[in-house]
Amino acid sequence: MEIRVRFAPSPTGPLHIGGARSALFNYLWARKNKGKFIVRSEDTDLERSSRESEQNILAALRWLNIQWDEGIEVGGEYGPYRQTERLELYREYTKKLMDNGHAYFCYCSEEELEQERQVLISKGETPRYLGKCRHLTSEQRATLEAEGRKPVVRFRVPEGQAIHINDQVRGDVVFDSNGIGDYVIVKSDGIPTYNFAVVVDDTTMKITHIIRGEEHLSNTPRQVLIYQALGLPVPEFAHVSLILNTEGGKMSKRDGDTAVMDYQKKGYLPEAIVNFIAFLGWAPSGEEEFYTLDELAEIFSLDRVSKSPAVFDIQKLNYINAHYIKKSAPERLAELALPHVQEMGILPQAERSIEQQQWFIGFIEAISEKISYMAEVKDFVHYFHGEVPLEPEGEALEVLRGEQVPGVLALFREKVLEAVPLSAAAVKVLLKQLTKELKLGGKLVYMPLRVTLTGQMHGPELYDIIPLLGRENVLKRLEVTKKRYLS
Ligand code: GLU
Predict the structure, then answer these.
(1) Catalytic residue flag (residue 432)
(2) Cα–Cα distance between 418 and 414 in angstroms, integer?
(3) pLDDT at 345 over 80
(4) Where exactly are the structural domains of the chain?
(5) Tell me: the pLDDT tens digits for 285-305?
(6) Pick from 457, 454, 409: which is nearest to 434 by CA?
(7) Which of 95, 179, 184, 388 is the residue whose CA sits 20 to 30 A from 372?
(8) What 3-state DSSP class applies to 243?
(9) R_g of the chain, CA atoms, integer Å
């Protein structure tokens, strides 16, 4: 049998890390089994759903390179792939359930339902619908309709049934049908609820495995009952654990961005995000930490999906992203860094001159081992660009007070004027000559130079900084520091 899995987001906001993980696991499971991966939109919440969110979700999947075989924008045999375009189908299935007595019209008003809820709560019982409209005669219905009441459709939950879910991650999970209460499957405006529409979609799209977040586990018995009532085979389930922060709490903005596209904006690499989210609740058998999407598709398996919560650790993501940055060509990194550099008002929006392009690539090469994501390039621009260094503070200021400093700067100035071209190789030679000719230890020469040129005690290599700053800026920075602190 062909394995068919799906990702079924509700387009009520951008794609979050948790959703991307569900999509990825389904995608990997499909590829591993040479099956099909379907993407459809669960847009029945008319107020909160938007095409804009749908577009964001699809863009994020495409950015991560998670491609779907059937679904929105791709098409396929079992479309349409938006629930609001499938209402006819839900009506058909509603009729089936009504005809065989598994569903019925309910005319209870909000107030009546609320009253029932309050009574149950005051008795310490689980609030649920007790079935007031279960056995309405056609006369009673006619009277209620004459009052202008619009019915919902409720599913008739069988009493005293143990509902078993054979979950691929959690094992046998049992629910007692008595706690459930007859639930609404079609609202009074004719729109199906999630638990009903999802079953109709999964069954008509021939879905074999439902891999989704643990937050849906409590919905599953409601869905299983509908399959049973329709006499349909129940697909396999795999509920993947929640994603928590490093303190074991719910993930929030403080722990890192939750929306996938925010990571794109910050200059994370899609292959790093994929690698990172693959490990949120799953791990391969070995020690290896780095996997491409293709490699993951070969080794992914549901039996290595963990029952315990996954931990979202932004440090880990930064570590993985830094790894992929180091492996990327400078040209690719430059392209990703460009918007961040331009944000600072340097480099033109349009064509760059050859000099600008050389500077930019050199800059990227000099810092690519030092950053975790591309937005961090902004923290490094000041080392390599402009006439004025940052202002030194504290210890750095002390460094400039050393008695050897004026001599170091004077000789450095001379050598910079002589070095043609002012390349990294030339700077390396020049720096060695300085220590030799001044008969000073490296620290006494390089530290004041560093502070003079950058205002900082630490940073990228001087032989990267000096050529990229260029002779003019180097001389200007020398003057600025001398004027401010040495005169
Ligand atoms: N629309 C649901 C959600 O976004 C999908 C649930 C499911 O996969 O069954 O959470």
Answers:
(1) no
(2) 6
(3) yes
(4) 87-240, 386-486
(5) 999 999 999 999 999 999 999
(6) 409
(7) 388
(8) strand
(9) 32
The CA 20 to ligand 1 mean position distance, Å, reads: 12
Per DSSP (E only), the strands in 53-92 are: 70-71
pLDDT above 80 for 350: no
Whole-model pTM above 0.90? yes
Chain Cα centroid distance, residue 192? 29
The number of helices, as runs of H, and strands, as runs of E, in the chain is 19, 12
Q: Does domain 386-486 have CATH number 1.20.1250.20?
A: no
Q: Which CATH architecture has domain 87-240?
A: 3-Layer(aba) Sandwich (3.40)
Rounded to whole angstroms, the Cα distance separating 246 from 314 reads 9
- 165 DSSP β-pair partners: 173
Asked if the model's pLDDT at residue 349 lies above 80, the reply is: no
Q: Is 180 helix (H, G, I), strand (E, B) or coil?
A: coil
pLDDT in tens, 24-40: 999 999 999 999 999 99
**pLDDT value for 325:** 98
Q: 110 to each of 106, 129, 443, 469, how far by Cα in Å? A: 11, 12, 78, 71
- The binding-site residues of ligand 1, defined as CB within 6 angstroms of any ligand atom, are 8-10, 42, 198, 212, 216
Which is catalytic among the residues 253, 316, 326, 378? 253
Phi, psi for residue 132 in degrees, rounded to 5: -55, -40
Q: Encoding tokens for residue 138?
A: 């056609």
Q: How far is CA 37 from CA 5, 230, 294, 327, in A?
A: 5, 25, 15, 30
Nearest to 4 by CA among 195, 163, 192, 201: 201
Instruction: Give the pLDDT of residue 301.
Output: 96
Q: Do domains 87-240 and 386-486 have the same CATH topology?
A: no
pLDDT in tens, 449-473: 999 999 999 999 999 999 999 999 9
- The pLDDT of residue 231 is 98
Give, for ligand 1, the residue of 42, 201, 214 to mutate: max count of ligand atoms closer than 8 Å to Cβ.
42
- The dihedral region occupied by 396, where left means phi > 0, alpha psi between -120 and 50, and beta the remainder, is alpha
Atom of ligand 1 nearest to the CA of 194: 1
Encode burial over 125-157: b for 16+ CB neighbours within 10 A, e otherwise: eeebbeeebeebeeeebeebeeeeeebbbbbbb
Residue percentage of the chain with pLDDT more than 70: 100
Confidence of residue 255 (pLDDT cuts 50, 70, 90): confident
Quick one: pLDDT band at residue 42, thresholds 50, 70, 90?
very high
